[in-house]
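Example 9 (inverse folding). The structure is encoded as follows.
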């Protein structure tokens, strides 16, 4: 007889199919089982479309009356872009709901389960909770910490340099490592870089993966130095972060072309202020890619959840070569410590992945 864990694992696997498309919603999968057989399954395909529970109910191969639904997150109980899932579940005749965790969104938290219980539906919460949370770690952070989930990514030489003294960084890592790094972009709602990265490298910043959505490109550009022909301005899937000191004519020109612009009253934009404004725009996750000063500002702020550190077997050297900037830690005890470390190898290149303790 299949266990609850068996069906929940199927739901989590289904949920993963929504990666990059559901933001700012979570990735959710649902499985309906009756007499130990799957009779319906579905996942949340894209923000604005039907949720996983409704998709699963639409896909049933027989009457779901008396069946059990397995879902990796508490069913929603509010009218958002779509009607509440709880209403559809109650109407269907489902007798039991097994889910991994409560929804961290305070508008939903516990209320979906309570409504199902009031309707006489049995509920079980907590099966494979850790696995389900890992899948939607950005969504949980967004609601629990009231800010976007922040990951930083950089490629460095063995002596910790991310570019030479002339700014050359192409390429520190090998092609396999770079392909993996691009794929990481598909896991985040937004990619963030400073203006120097745009001026020096003119990056594309796209995921460039079939079936994955390109992330929003966030550019920190206090004086609006961004060239009109920069690759990142190929469409309006961009947020330009600038200051009131920037030239008004250029700002108006960019706005007239449809580029969203966030304006701050001061030239130096603090990370907490920036994240607060991005939260208002429902951006739940950000991958910070550079350059050195931008990475350093996040390290100094200590508002980082995850780190991807690529290292290649080269030595760049030089006092003026570029590393992670900012003020830095005053002592080793004040340095950011990583936990839950994992490693990947790309021929002679290495990637260290860790969470900030």
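The amino acid assigned to each position is listed next.
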């Amino acid at each position: 007889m299949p266990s609850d864990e068996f069906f929940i694992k199927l739901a989590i696997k289904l949920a993963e199919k929504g990666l990059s498309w559901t933001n700012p919603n979570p990735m959710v999968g649902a499985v309906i089982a009756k007499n130990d057989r799957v009779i319906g399954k579905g996942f949340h395909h894209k923000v604005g479309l039907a949720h996983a529970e409704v998709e699963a109910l639409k896909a049933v191969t027989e009457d779901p009356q008396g069946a059990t639904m397995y879902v990796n997150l508490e069913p929603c109980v509010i009218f958002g872009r779509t009607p509440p899932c709880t209403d559809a579940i109650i109407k269907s005749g489902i007798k039991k709901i097994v889910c991994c965790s409560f929804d961290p969104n305070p508008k939903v938290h516990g209320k979906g389960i309570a409504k199902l219980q009031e309707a006489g539906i049995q509920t079980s919460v907590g099966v494979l909770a850790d696995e389900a949370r890992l899948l939607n770690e950005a969504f949980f952070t967004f609601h629990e910490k009231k800010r976007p989930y922040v990951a930083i990514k950089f490629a460095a030489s063995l002596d910790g340099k991310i570019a030479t003294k002339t700014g050359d960084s192409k390429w520190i890592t090998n092609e396999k490592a770079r392909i993996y790094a691009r794929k990481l972009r598909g896991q985040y709602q937004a990619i963030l870089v400073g203006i120097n990265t745009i001026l020096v490298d003119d990056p594309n910043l796209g995921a460039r993966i079939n079936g994955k959505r390109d992330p929003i490109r966030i550019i920190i550009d206090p004086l609006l130095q961004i060239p009109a022909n920069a690759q990142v301005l190929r469409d309006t899937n961009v947020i330009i972060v600038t200051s009131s000191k920037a030239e008004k004519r250029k700002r108006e020109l960019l706005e007239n072309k449809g580029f969203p612009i966030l304006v701050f009253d001061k030239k130096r934009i603090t990370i907490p202020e920036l994240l607060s404004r991005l939260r208002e725009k429902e951006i739940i996750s950000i991958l910070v890619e550079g350059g050195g000063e931008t990475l350093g500002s996040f390290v100094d702020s200590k508002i980082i959840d995850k780190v991807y550190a690529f290292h290649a077997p080269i030595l760049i050297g030089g006092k003026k070569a570029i590393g992670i900037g900012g003020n830095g830690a005053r002592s080793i005890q004040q340095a950011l410590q990583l936990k839950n470390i994992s490693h990947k190898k790309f021929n002679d290149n290495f990637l260290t992945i860790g969470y900030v303790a």
